[in-house]
Amino acid sequence: MGLSRARATDKARTAVEGTSRWVVAALAGVAAAVAVGTVPDVIKSWLGDQRELLTALCVASAAVFAGINLWQQRSKGVGIVIALPRTNWRAAWSVQWAAAAVAHARRHHDSCFTVRQDIEAASPDDDAEAKAAAREARTATIELACNLVNARLTELAEADPSTPVSLYVNAALPDAFELGATFKFNVHRRLRSIGAPSKGVDGSSTRASAPAEELEAVADVVLSQRAEFARTDFFPAVRISGRLKEPPGPAETVRAAKLAKVIEEPDFDGAPDGEAVALVVHLADNPMMVAEALLAAREGCLDVNGRWERCRAALVIDGAPANMPETTGDFELVVRHVYAAWSAWIKERPHYAGLRPRLFITAPASVAFALGWLMGQKVTPVPHPYETGESCTSS
Question: Each residue of 351-379: pLDDT tens digit?
Answer without folding.
Answer: 998 999 999 999 999 999 999 999 999 99
